[in-house]
Amino acid sequence: MNILSFLAVIALSITLIEGIYILFLNARSETNRLFFLICIAISIWLIGGAFGYSAQTKEAAFFWLKVSSPGFIFMHTFVLHFTIRYTGLIKKIPIYPFYIPSFCFLFISLSDNLVFVDIYRSEKFWEMVPDYQSVAFYLLIANYLSYYLLSIALLYVSIKKTEFIRIRKQSRLILIAIIITITSYNIEPFLGPLFFNYHTYGQAPLYSIVWISIIWYAIVKYRFLGAHKKTLTMEVFNSLHEMVIITDKNKTIININRTLRDRLGRPEGIFSLQEIFLEHELLQRLIDSIGNKPVLDINLNLVISQCSIVPVKASLSIFQDRFQDDLGFIITAQEITDNYHLLRKNMVTKRENQLIQLILAGNSNRQIAETMGISLRTVETHITHIFDKLGLKNRIELINYCNESPSAPADF
């Protein structure tokens, strides 16, 4: 095996992996199946190249050239078909007549020589002589170029018309890939020999690694051909306005959505319930005792910083797999609109308002003292001042006062 065969095997492996991966993402999608056919065409071309580059005789080299011919004869047709379906710009014109020239060229290739008129050994490699005297040779080039140029035009129009940034960017990548394909697949085997004594090493199929690399980048960067359900689910998860936490059965956090991360001011990192909620012990007790029905209207406080909290109304539920086995818990929370503007009329300070939120969440005086970083006596003094300002006598009256306030939220 020489270096060209080795490179062909590497390109073949990557191409097959990429094609199978795209098909696995959504085998029902016509565009995914067409992209898989493009990968199959490249693979057939590379199989012929891998064996042909290391062939021992001229007859064997011609045999593997014929084996590879369906690949390069149908590839541009598959690309056009794929582009038409991908862009959705041509709907009324039948697509299958576009395949007729490829079947004609395939017949010529299998019954005679289509592209190369001669192959001969030059040291370790085979050199090929393009058949510049053949009409079929020029018709193949014309067919090749016209299909690729039409694909480029469709992609260009699609880029201009689409409103989706992701589609626009991945379409540009496909456009670049096709332009590079036209350049590499035509210059080396067809135009290059005109300047190098009419000989070529037939390296064109190896250039498919450029196409493969660009498309793989589009898969990773822009979820080419519609990424799998996991990616879509994560986008929906992060787009929710509610703050969401997913934990396993052991109450270990698996994921939190972007809304909660932004509110906590920590875009990265792994959290624990203790880091997120002031009343984490209450929440853990509810998790331990939860039944089949979700627990609603849980008053909690998010810990934004060491000295700052945000009141939220939370709910807790179990999520299961398709076998109805419990997998973990989902905690959703919505921030409660602060009614400080109402309390301020009674001379309640922001510090006292924070203390009120902790009382409403069911915290004891000692817990409030630990949260606010003050002494228990100071907490008691603050509570006394709050009762005096609002004309209340105890916590029950304070809770009723906040629930019945016309400016407070209905579920506060």
Furnish the topology, listing elements before pairings.
Elements lengths: L2 H23 L4 H24 L4 H30 L12 H12 L4 E7 L2 E6 L4 H27 L3 H31 L12 H15 L6 H11 L3 E6 L4 E4 L1 H7 L8 H4 L3 H10 L5 E11 L2 E13 L5 E10 L4 H5 L5 H11 L4 H8 L3 H15 L4 H10 L8
Antiparallel strand pairs: 1-2, 3-4, 3-7, 5-6, 6-7
Please give a structural write-up.
The protein folds into 3 domains: 3-227, Rhodopsin 7-helix transmembrane proteins (Rhopdopsin 7-helix transmembrane proteins, Up-down Bundle), CATH 1.20.1070; 228-336, PAS domain (Beta-Lactamase, 2-Layer Sandwich), CATH 3.30.450.20; 338-412, Arc Repressor Mutant, subunit A, CATH 1.10.10. The chain has helices at 3-25, 30-53, 58-87, 100-111, 135-161, 165-195, 208-222, 229-239, 258-264, 273-276, 280-289, 340-344, 350-360, 365-372, 376-390, 395-404; strands at residues 116-122, 125-130, 243-248, 253-256, 295-305, 308-320, 326-335. The longest helix has 31 residues, at 165-195. The chain has a 5-stranded antiparallel sheet with strand order 4-3-7-6-5. Strands 1-2 form a two-stranded antiparallel sheet. By secondary structure, the protein is α+β, with helices and mostly antiparallel strands. Residues 406-412 have low confidence and may be disordered. Helix 3 packs parallel to helix 5 and helix 14 (365-372) crosses helix 15. Strand 3 (243-248) and strand 4 (253-256) form a beta hairpin. It is built from 16 helices and 7 strands.
Sum this structure up briefly.
The protein has helices at 3-25, 30-53, 58-87, 100-111, 135-161, 165-195, 208-222, 229-239, 258-264, 273-276, 280-289, 340-344, 350-360, 365-372, 376-390, 395-404, and strands spanning 116-122, 125-130, 243-248, 253-256, 295-305, 308-320, 326-335. By secondary structure, it is an alpha+beta fold.
